[in-house]
Write a structure and sequence with these properties.
alpha/beta; Signal recognition particle alu RNA binding heterodimer, srp9/1; 2 domains; four-stranded mixed beta sheet; 2 helices; 19% helix
Length: 122
């Protein structure tokens, strides 16, 4: 096994989502995260998140199940889920295990993401 030093370590600087409508999807995620648009080239729009989240308009987004999805949260999961639904997301299902719960959602283009938070122990 080899070691990785700072000069050769792979760093994730941006997550890019292929989509049908970069403007609409970046607007949804900008409102969802509170992050501003920092680059706007029409068919390619990036938000000021860390790492940067970008939306690239393509003629034929990959069909089928996402193999990569975003996991996030930010406090009150139920309130966040309700707010995201108001912005245009779809709630799919909720799961819980000891000490943690999460809700699986889809953004307006059907990209899966999860909203999680800690739950109280009985």
């Amino acid at each position: 096994m080899t070691t990785t030093d700072a000069a050769t370590a792979y760093r994730i600087g941006m997550i890019t989502v292929d989509c049908r409508d970069a403007r609409a999807l970046s607007t949804f995620w900008s409102q969802a995260t509170g992050a501003p648009v920092v680059e706007d080239y029409g068919e390619y729009i990036a938000l000021g998140t860390t790492p940067r989240l970008a939306f690239q308009q393509v003629p034929d987004p990959t069909p089928g199940k996402n193999r990569l999805h975003l996991d996030g949260g930010g406090g009150d999961r139920l309130a966040a889920v309700a707010r995201l639904r108001e912005l245009g997301a779809t709630e799919r299902e909720t799961h819980a295990m000891e000490g943690f719960a999460w809700t699986i959602m889809e953004d307006p283009e059907g990209n899966v993401f999860c909203v999680g938070d800690d739950v109280e122990h009985p």
